[in-house]
Structures are given as C-alpha cells and as structure tokens.
Amino acid sequence: MIGRLRGRILAKQPPSLLLDVNGVGYEIEAPMSTFYVLPAGNEEVVLHTHLSVREDAHVLYGFAREADRTLFRALLKVSGVGGKMALGVLSGMTAEEFNQAVQAGDIAALTRLPGVGKKTAERLVVEMRDKLDKLGIGMSSQPGAVVAAETAPTGADQDAVSALIALGYKPPEASRMVSKVFEDGMDTEEIIRAALKGSVK
Fold this sequence. Notes:
Layout: E1 4-13, E2 16-21, E3 24-29, H1 32-35, E4 44-53, E5 58-63, H2 66-76, H3 83-92, H4 95-104, H5 107-111, H6 118-135, H7 156-166, H8 171-181, H9 188-199
Parallel strand pairs: 3-5
Antiparallel strand pairs: 1-2, 1-4, 2-3, 4-5
C-alpha cells in the first residue's frame, strides 16, 4: 500500500497530476481542495495517498490533508459511491462543509455535487452522520490559500471546463459554470474554485 509520497510536481491537469519521486513519475488523481494548496513552482510537496486496486486499473489518489484522505476512504464505503464521485465531493466542499451538510441533513447542498442524486445524498446523510464524528472530521482547519500563478495560461477557461467534466459534471453544465465566473487574468485553478463555489451556493 502506498500511503504517502514526497516529490516535485511535473505536470498538473486537474483532476490529475504527475509527481516525480526520486526519478519515478506517479500519476495521481486529486480533488480540487488539494490543487488549491499546491505550490505554483517546482517545490517539494507531500501527499497523503490512497491506492485503489480494480480489475482494470490501479488508481492512486492524493490529498494535501490527512482529513481529506480519511473522508475519501469513508465515502468509498458508502454504497454507490466510487472514486470519481468521492473526488467530486471533496472538490465541491471541504471536509468541514461536508460534515456540516451531513449533520444538518442538507440534501439540497449534497445534490449540487457532481454525480450525487437525491437517493445518494440521502444515503450519504444516513450512512455518514455517525461515522464523521468517530473519524473526527470537521475539527481540523481549512486548507491554506491558493498560490496564484503570475500570469494566466492560455485557454485556462477551457482547461477548467475539462477539469469539471472529469469531475463528473455534464459538458453544458461545466461550460455554464465556468462562463459565470471567468474573468481575464484568472488561472485554471482559480476558475475551478470559483465555479465550484458558485455551484454549491
């Protein structure tokens, strides 16, 4: 089991990143909550990881905070929730916000997350309410501020749309979310953050 990796980021294309660990490149799927706190430059980062072994693939997931990995693992135990949906949950809400929504039974907030329908939201509330207290989720601090790039890459809005589609949003919905928040000068991660924040209001 790979539980933790320390290395330098070679490429970022949300929700995927490539991490160089002593010359070995690890392809990692990560929620947007992790992308928001990654350094802009070639600095060393530490990611808490979860390895998912399926018949057709081995998928490595990475998280900036241990609380996010803990929540991810708890979500995978809920019937009908897979890795993609769990990443979508952690991209649309912090662990603390998810805890608040579950404890309050806020089905409306949960159904605004990608891939989460009413039945799944109800199942999340029922199955996660007691687990979250036992796991201590909701007690830790919010992630740090985003390190913004000095100049926005070309096509940042299109990259943001692609990332939202990869997280489970339908293409027209992803385009609409991005067009609502996009302003000149924003980088991809800023656009995604603003779009996801707007979708859960």
